């Protein structure tokens, strides 16, 4: 949807436009860093307008928020260790497995 000109001032109108474009399409919705129930309520109480096989991923630090919303499956993700962060960064940023340790220290 990027670049398609969703320039609405009202979040309600914006949500309505998103629903119209995604109606009955298989989607992956990621609601990142949710900390208020109102953020989830803005999406509506049910996601029936999504197509079959759609998934909703909610990231939050508030487990109670998830249970109050009726989330069925909760996965707790552990933080990466420092060396794992560097390895992931190298693989994504430089598309390589190994990098010169001297160059890494300078960055």
TrEMBL record:
Taxonomic superkingdom: Eukaryota
Entries under Pfam families matching the protein: NB-ARC
Stored SUPFAM superfamilies: P-loop containing nucleoside triphosphate hydrolases
One Gene Ontology MF term: ADP binding
GO biological process: defense response
Annotated NB-ARC domain residues: 4-97
PANTHER family assigned to the protein according to its UniProt record, in alphabetical order: DISEASE RESISTANCE PROTEIN (TIR-NBS CLASS), LEUCINE-RICH REPEAT-CONTAINING PROTEIN
Protein name: NB-ARC domain-containing protein
Biological source species: Brassica oleracea var. oleracea
Lineage: Eukaryota, Viridiplantae, Streptophyta, Embryophyta, Tracheophyta
């Amino acid at each position: 949807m990027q670049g398609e000109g969703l320039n609405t001032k009202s979040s309600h109108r914006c949500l309505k436009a998103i629903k119209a474009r995604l109606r009955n399409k298989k989607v992956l919705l990621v609601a990142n860093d949710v900390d208020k129930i109102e953020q989830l309520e803005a999406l509506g109480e049910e996601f029936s307008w999504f197509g079959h096989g759609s998934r909703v991923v909610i990231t939050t630090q508030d487990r109670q928020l998830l249970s109050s919303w009726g989330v069925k499956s909760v996965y707790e993700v552990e933080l990466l260790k420092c060396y794992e962060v560097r390895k992931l960064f190298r693989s994504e940023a430089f598309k390589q497995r190994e990098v010169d340790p001297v160059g890494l220290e300078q960055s």
